[in-house]
Amino acid sequence: MSGIDASSILQMRNQILQQNAALQRVATAPVMPPAAPGAAAPVEQTGFTSALRDALTQVNSLQAASSEATAAYERGETTDIAAVMLAREQSSLGFQATLQVRNKLLTAYRDIMSMPV
Questions:
Q1: Biological process (GO) annotations (predicted)?
Q2: Which of 61, 87, 98, 99 is the most interior residue, by most CB within 10 Å?
Q3: Where residue 1 falls among pLDDT bands split at 50, 70, 90?
Q4: Does residue 66 contact residue 85 with C-beta atoms inside 8 Å?
Q5: How does pLDDT run across 9-57, given as a tens digit for each residue?
Q6: What range defines the domain where residue 74 resides?
Q7: What is the C-alpha separation between 13 and 65, in angstroms, rounded?
Q8: How many domains does the chain have?
Q9: What is the rounded average pLDDT of the residues 96-101?
Q10: What is the per-residue DSSP string for 9-73?
Q11: Could you tell me if residue 19 is inside a domain?
């Protein structure tokens, strides 16, 4: 075996649990109300459109990196198949997540449009 033992696995597990706890704290943190007029300027808040644009840009960059890693492997410039497969899987997961968000948005739009006025 190449350096994998129980202590390193437990250490990685603890790091994952700590990151999960941090993400849960951020997700459940209360949203601050807007500042009163004349108060100090709040940190720039992003809207839904910019968040969606950023997410799509990130997925696009993952797909470009995946394509480049695959092309480099096919040309023989790299021999690390694990890195290539990891890049492809990240790209695939990002695309699938984006597709699911799109499907949910379309379903919500259809539901709203079919509501009686």
A1: bacterial-type flagellum-dependent cell motility
A2: 87
A3: very low
A4: no
A5: 878 778 887 877 777 777 676 655 555 555 555 555 568 888 888 889 9
A6: 47-117
A7: 28
A8: 1
A9: 92
A10: HHHHHHHHHHHHHHHHHHHHSPPPPPPPTTSPPPPPPP-HHHHHHHHHHHHHHHHHHHHHHHHHH
A11: no
Does any domain span residue 30?
no
Decide: 63 and 91 in contact? Cβ < 8 Å. yes
Note whether 72 and 78 are within 8 A (CB): yes
42 phi/psi in degrees, rounded to 5: -75, 165
Residue type present at position 86: L
Alpha carbon dihedral 76, 61, 98, 30, in 10-degree steps, equals 130
Give residue-wise pLDDT tens across range 45-76: 568 888 888 889 999 999 999 999 999 999 99
In a domain, 84, yes or no: yes
Count CB neighbours of 59 within 10 A. 19
6 found inside a domain: no
